[in-house]
Amino acid sequence: MSPEKVKWAGSCGDKAGPGATTMQPLLLLCLLLLSPQAASLRHRHHSREVKKKVKEPPTEATVAPSSKDLAFDLYRALASAAPTENIFFSPLSISTSLAMLSLGARSDTKTQILEGLGLSLPEEELHRHFQHLLQELSQPHGGFQLSLGNALFTDPVLDVQPAFLSALKTLYLADIFPTNFGDPAEAKKQINDYVAKQTQGKIGSLIENLDSTQIMVMVNYIFFKAEWETGFSPKSTRERDFHVTAETAVQVPMMHGEGQYYYVLDDNLSCSVVGLPYHGNATAVFVLPDEDRMAQVEKELTGKTLRKWLRTFRKRKLELFLPKFSIEGSYQLERVLPRLGISDAFTSHADLSGINNHSNIQVSEMVHKAMVEVNESGTKATAATGSVFTFRSAQLSSLRVVFNRPFLMSILDSNLNILFLGKVTKP
């Protein structure tokens, strides 16, 4: 029998309407579809129902941060595949989705996922870490909106393991919905309607293709929206050159502000770093490599570097020029993650028997989509630390920092979780 297949996807984004006065929302979703190719499975198990009563596991929670730098390893893999393109994705959403998948994985498939996530302590602690994180992020945040959640849509023809369902509910706070995948159009509508509701209508058609062979969908979503602590005046925005390459410049609307901003000059990585706080203790970090130093920064940048920048930022007077921009990314992660050692889940060697008893299940597709928009009132980004660097002492005169060539950006919450990460090469 040919392998049953799992399809996974993600998305994030929004565009502003006229006169928008708040930061544009940032969204991301991940999707997992199991699709048995043997029609007989649906026929044989049509009368079966998913067991509804499950015994929940013990809930001794221990928060354990991972040691591997999945966010930047993934960034480098995406950047090497398309060095001249914009990049934007959510490390948090992708790692959450992989962690959920690991609950149903066994043998080498599980090992690869856990090692990719950077597990250095018992697996239970990784899941407790995500449980704690999800509970924390679900709390109200003063000054900005942030929501993160999970859902499972499963066809009653599939006997899902009770332990898998229980763990999704308990550890990942997932909503679980029975779905008739025998009616692909109705199943597609059910899932897309759920996604649209959770993302406040910003993503209305996450699933574009669905057929009667698919029997499970797992979704992860993030919604983030915030305002700058100190915004830019739209009256100061002017068309200016942005140097896409040394030979090519395009005109972009360039925001302008002069005041006290968080700043650090990293001599080791040859870049300038500016931190723009949002209301509510989140921060946008913009990294401007020196001329011809983008490759060096991309090669050496780590989460540790971001966190160190965040700890050591100092306010100084800047004359800051930052383009308004809207970028998006769409990635087939089943082609990228094997380069990071996560490969078996996407092949006939996959062991996902923790999801259901059948051994012929694999992940056929993992699609990740994301979008961000930056304007005078708000943006998405975050700061972290790392590396050896040098500060320029504050002076009475303003230091001029102009983001008129490709730069990096990140969004972190107050607990240093990297919500989003990207590169702007074409605003």
From TrEMBL:
Domain Serpin: 72-427
Keywords: Signal
GO CC terms in record: extracellular space
MF term (GO), any: serine-type endopeptidase inhibitor activity
Pfam family, one: Serpin
Signal peptide location: 1-40
Gene3D superfamilies given in the database record: Alpha-1-antitrypsin, domain 1 (2.30.39.10), Antithrombin, subunit I, domain 2 (3.30.497.10)
InterPro entries: Serpin_CS, Serpin_dom, Serpin_fam, Serpin_sf, Serpin_sf_1, Serpin_sf_2
Residues that span the membrane, as ranges: none
Family the UniProt entry places it in: Belongs to the serpin family.
Protein name per its UniProtKB record: Plasma serine protease inhibitor
